[in-house]
Amino acid sequence: METTWEKQLRTAGLRVTRPRLSVLGVLAEHPHVDADTIATAARTVHPSISPQAVYGVLKALIGSGIARRIEPAGGPALYELRVGDNHHHHLVCRECGLIADVDCVVGQAPCLQPSDAAGFAVDEAEVVFWGLCAGCQVARRTHVHGTNSAIEEGVTA
Amino acid sequence: METTWEKQLRTAGLRVTRPRLSVLGVLAEHPHVDADTIATAARTVHPSISPQAVYGVLKALIGSGIARRIEPAGGPALYELRVGDNHHHHLVCRECGLIADVDCVVGQAPCLQPSDAAGFAVDEAEVVFWGLCAGCQVARRTHVHGTNSAIEEGVTA
DNA sequence: CCTGCTTTTTTGACTCAGTCAAATCAAGAG
DNA sequence: CTCTTGATTTGACTGAGTCAAAAAAGCAGG
């Protein structure tokens, strides 16, 4: 497994270093993490890693397409490994920040091409679905006695 | 025109104040502005307005649905007036940050509902189209002599 | 196995966007 | 006009991330 990462790094023309391997290890275990969590987790494997090194590693990984950066509104940036070419989108929980992956909707849904592109040369469509994760729906029904009609009426796009 | 804003504020249960009216004025003139630009522009009308007042006003406007906040990756948050109910999405230029509105794709495109919602109760789908605006396409062709094949091959969603 | 060049990492200062809390001030109800 | 409540100002502070110089480590050639 570790050999795979080494190969990936070398293929990308990057040197194989301890900080890089430990960051890759963290990314492989946690699907969507912020830089600070990566630093903390990586420190269990490589105690001397500095926060800036994490940013540096992530920048290198992103630059060579090994990792991807997503920036949900209202929170720090999150990083994920890009395994293969499976481009996907994200479901974000408004309450707890939990993120789930959703398969790319293009294919069944070529409608993502904007109808009027206003002269733009569009090269990527980014979709974020906002809502409540299963756990937070339960928590809300338990503690609050209001309705959650707004949530369940459907999607506003 | 100003009376309209006063009415909107009062309807929302908000007091009509000079900072609020000047921020509304700026928002009406500029479709997508960041907080700092709003502060600078508002100062031409109301010189003593503080940056924090701008944040306060925006928070109030957003809380009552008069304005909307968007947070494109890699830049400060932008604010726009929400006229009527026309929910729309955004085209963002990778080069210059220019933003254009795109009509909501739901209606012709009910496919925005994720196929597998992983137990989430989804209440909003947010779409951002990334690319190059017309101006930056011209600028790039003029100054760089490489290809821009990646850009024009189509949308990756 | 060394040597030396180059890329990474470390260290530490710094920026930018935004928040928080206490004190002052103004809107507008009565 | 006065009083109460809500809004703004002032000023300190946080969190996320960048930048640059110095130290350290990777790895290619001998």
UniProtKB/TrEMBL annotation, chains A, B:
GO terms for cellular component: cytoplasm. It holds the Pfam family FUR. The keyword ATP-binding does not apply. Fe cation binds at residue 87. GO terms for molecular function: DNA-binding transcription factor activity; transcription cis-regulatory region binding; zinc ion binding. Binds 1 Mn(2+) or Fe(2+) ion per subunit. Zn(2+) binds at residues 93, 96, 133, 136. It is found in: Cytoplasm. Keywords: Cytoplasm, DNA-binding, Iron, Metal-binding, Repressor, Transcription, Transcription regulation, Zinc. Its cofactor is Mn(2+); Fe(2+); Zn(2+). One of its GO terms (biological process) is regulation of secondary metabolite biosynthetic process. The keyword Repressor applies. Its main location: cytoplasm. It comes from the Bacteria. Belongs to the Fur family. This is Fur family transcriptional regulator. It comes from Modestobacter caceresii.
